[in-house]
Amino acid sequence: MIARHPKREDIRLDAVLTALGNPIRLAAVRTIAVGGEHPCCDVLPQIPKSTMTHHWRALRDSGVVWQRHIGREYRLELRREDLDSRFPGLLDSILGPLVSDPLTQETISEYDRSRQGAPA
C-alpha cells in the first residue's frame, strides 16, 4: 500500500488545524519537529501502535507529515517547508509555545494512567 500525501498546493489550512487539534497528534508533531525524521514507533512509544496508526494517517492525509516506508518500518518527517510555504509562521506559532506547555505532556501522562487503570 502506498501512502497518499497531498501535494503542497493541495494542503488545506482547515485540515492542518484539525490534525493539530488533537493533543496526542500535537505532542507527536512537537517530537518530530525537534528531532527530524523518526521511526513511527519511537515518537510516542507509550501509546499503542494501533492507536498511533490512526493519528499518523490523520497527520499524513492533512499534509503535516511525510510518512515513508523504509525496510520494515515507517518513518515520519514534518513537512515544514511545505507548511511554511503555504501558511507562513503557522508551525512556529503553534509549536513554539509547546516547549513550555505542561498540558501537552499532561495529556500524554493521563493517557498512560488510563491505559494502566490508574486514577487520572
UniProtKB/TrEMBL annotation:
Source domain of life: Bacteria
Residues of the HTH arsR-type domain: 15-92
Gene Ontology MF, one: DNA-binding transcription factor activity
Protein name: Putative regulator protein, ArsR family
Record gene name: AsrR
